Amino acid sequence: MPDAARPRPWLVLAICCMSLLMVSLDITILNVALPAVRSDLHTSVSGLQWTVDAYTLVLASLLMLSGSTADRIGRRRVFRIGLVVFGAASLLCSLAPGLGWLIVARMLQAVGGSMLNPVAMSIISNTFTDSRQRARAIGVWGGVVGISMAAGPILGGALVESAGWRAIFWINVPIALAAFVLTGRYVPESRAARARRVDPVGQTLVVVLLAGLTYAIIESPQRGWSSPVVLGCTAAALAALLGLLRYEPRRTDPLIDLRFFRSAPFAGATVIAVAAFAGLGGFLFVSSLYLQDVRGLEPLHAGLYMFPMAVMALVTGPLSGRMVAARGPRTPLLLAGAALSASAVIQAVSYSEHLSTGLLVLAFLLFGIGFGLVNAPITNTAVSGMPRAQAGVAAAVASTSRQVGQSLGVAVIGALMAGAAHSDPAAFTGTARTAWWIIAGCGAVVLVAGTLTSGRWARATAERTAARLAAEEAGEEAGEESRTAKEKVDA
After folding, report:
1. Residues 241, 281: one domain?
2. What is the value of pTM for the model shown?
3. How confident is the model at residue 2 (pLDDT cuts 50, 70, 90)?
């Protein structure tokens, strides 16, 4: 029997975590390198926003398509294609001669990235069928995010100082190559029992919604909200949202299965993911500019300042997984919301160019605790209550929520900081305090949504939704078999 035919759950988890490590490293390393990119490519704050958001926008737009495609044609196959595309695009990023080329390469990176994390999570959810083991595996998954957050700023700072910002993309290549080989050898192929049809209309509407909204936010400081371009993008995003709400429920195999949102925990996990990752996007964006532009730190020293935050995310990620397995998602969600809010409030109240190192480290520690605790309950809630046949779609919705949140966080906070980024330190920190209040609001959303969607009533809605989805799925499969049999008889 070939090695790939003998499932080895924890080895499969390790291989899938390699893709998460690569993608997460790419995000944290890039944020440390933003000032160097701005200096070398002579770009503005909006250019830096697009360097980050070009990736997250394309990623968010394609995640659900990649998840459903993997369920249809094979998760291992799609995962390996994603590794090749991501690794090749990383090389192109390192060779980009200008900002436009870098943004295009980042978009190609996102095409590959869309085939990695949600598909890997689908592989994991189908490998770990026991709910407790799945929760522990997801805790390890969250720990890998912590590892990337711990290693990313320091590794990125060292690479930027020693070899320039282009070197931050080189590290993806050997990881992608190793994961590609190991996946082919040890990860068994899996797919959904019934293939889902492609939804080109839904996919187009998602792209228009996300791109229109983000473009309007990023470009509004320069063009103004009354600009025809900004107004047009806003109107297009609103029209796309209304189109999705009207069109998707009518499809047999929608890109976004709105039935999932009948489950209060699933809907809550989506809101929490958007809020938490909006906070993360804003946190990394503001902190990178503050540490290097205001406090005058070198990239490596800036990375060291972020190290306490990353260490706490590393420690609390697996702990959160164990808490979810033992007691459910409520406790880690409430602790996460409180920690994220406290971190942002500390900085909103006391932010200045002379902010004490002790207070700054305390705020970073609290943010790391909150972010480490929030990942496992989001992911576990998204996949545990859904039929296994739709694991890829459910995981992709959760991953999409994360990327949408991060895109919005960078867009909103970047737009707020656009006018102050090149000003004197006092102007920068004054504007940054408003940004920290926004991030505190994101933490408050996590706290409130975690409270409302993790109780007895919420669990009852999840059970009803799972039963209804399973019944509807069984009915659709029976109907498909009946039609196939009838066609054979007629033939």
Report:
1. no
2. 0.78
3. very low
